[in-house]
Design goal:
Blueprint (H helix, E strand, L loop, with lengths): L6 E17 L5 E17 L3 E5 L6 H8 L7 E6 L8 H5 L2 E5 L11 H11 L4 H15 L14 H13 L5 E5 L7 H16 L4 E5 L3 H7 L2 E6 L2 E6 L1 H8 L2 E8 L10 E6 L2 E7 L5 H9 L4 E8 L2 H14 L12
Parallel strand pairs: 3-7, 3-8, 5-6, 6-7
Antiparallel strand pairs: 1-2, 1-4, 8-9, 10-12, 10-13, 11-12
Helix pairs in contact: 4-5
């Protein structure tokens, strides 16, 4: 196996559950077992950028806590760089960075630089490595104006940039990001995404990121892992997901007349002289679509586009929640 293809993350038949006791009366307690992960397996290889997505409560944060050594699985193997993160936690974490979007490592009542100096001392980062990394992170994340600012005075976007820099201070080979764009405005999100892509492509950092914003994930990552009810439901590319769920596309028309609904198309919106149709590109090829549209009188403008990935994923989640589809097809195992 080549070095750049070495296995960084390994989950093999991992099961993690939590036992709960709920009161049903003053004297009686009901015992239940909640499975956060149920027989989950996947690998992540060096240099990959994987998106890890699923509905709320699917098991995403639990997976990250297992990888960080904060939780231990009841069954299966969890390996980071070939080591158990619960047994070799210091060794593993020296090569790993973890960022939870709703938590911060910054010292609230101290300047930003104090948090970096604290981590340098605690993690025993050599002076030369520290200076080099701080200089590079300041440039890439525009931290110089924030360096002497108290953490409590930072905006959300500024705090996330500082937290990300602190996560990368020790030059980790693997970075786990849980909702890194949570609550960010358009500009702050753009900076975050651009930096993460740069770190992956130019610095070779292996990344795994969770988010409910599928547009962000499709732009950042080249692999999608979907989890549902504690089970891996899909593992593959976005293109493979679209092929398996149907190549749904939209046609937007501006007409001078009230158009009919051609066979095979579904009318999803009509407002004045504007109509939007939905169709499956795997069932209606482009020549057939043009023939159908040619039969509509009074067309002044046509726009064609793939259906938004957010809509595709939302429909898939809806199927899962209604029980009509226990899991999406798997496109392969990493």
């Amino acid at each position: 196996m080549k070095t750049n293809q070495a296995c960084v993350v390994l989950l093999e038949h991992v099961t993690k559950y939590f036992d709960q006791r709920r009161p049903v009366s003053l004297w009686k307690r009901e015992h239940s077992r909640i499975y956060a992960l149920n027989d989950v397996s996947f690998t992540l290889r060096r240099g990959e950028f994987a998106a890890y997505a699923g509905p709320n409560g699917a098991g995403k944060s639990t997976t990250f806590k297992l990888l960080a050594g904060l939780l231990r699985a009841q069954q299966g193997q969890v390996k980071i760089f070939g080591a158990d993160p619960c047994v070799k936690r210091i060794e593993v974490m020296r090569r790993t960075g973890v960022l939870f979007g709703n938590r911060s490592e910054l010292w609230w009542d101290h300047p930003v630089r104090a948090s970096f100096e604290w981590k340098k001392a605690v993690w025993d980062i050599p002076d030369g490595v520290y200076r080099t990394n701080v200089k590079r992170l300041k440039e890439l994340l525009d931290l110089e104006p924030l360096w002497n600012t108290f953490s409590r005075e930072l905006s959300l976007g500024q705090r996330m940039r500082a937290d990300l820099a602190l996560t990368l201070l020790h030059a980790p080979e693997l970075v786990l990001l849980d909702e890194p764009t949570l609550g960010l405005d358009v500009l702050a999100k753009r900076r975050m995404i651009d930096f993460l892509k740069l770190a992956n492509q130019e610095l070779g950092v292996t990344m795994m990121v969770t988010s409910h914003d599928m547009d962000d994930l499709t732009e950042m990552a080249n692999r999608l892992l979907l989890i549902n009810r504690g089970r891996r439901a899909f593992d593959g590319s976005y293109e493979a997901l679209l092929r398996m769920t149907g190549d749904h596309r939209l046609v937007r028309l501006i007409t001078s007349a009230d158009p009919p609904v051609p066979e095979g198309l579904t009318l999803v919106d009509r407002s004045g002289d504007r109509c939007t149709y939905r169709y499956d590109g795997t069932k209606i090829p482009s020549p057939r679509l043009f023939t159908l549209l040619a039969g509509i009188p009074g067309i002044r403008d046509i726009q064609m586009e793939p259906e938004n990935i957010e809509t595709v994923i939302a429909n898939l989640y809806q199927k899962w929640s209604s029980g009509r589809e226990a899991a999406a097809p798997e496109a392969g195992i990493g």
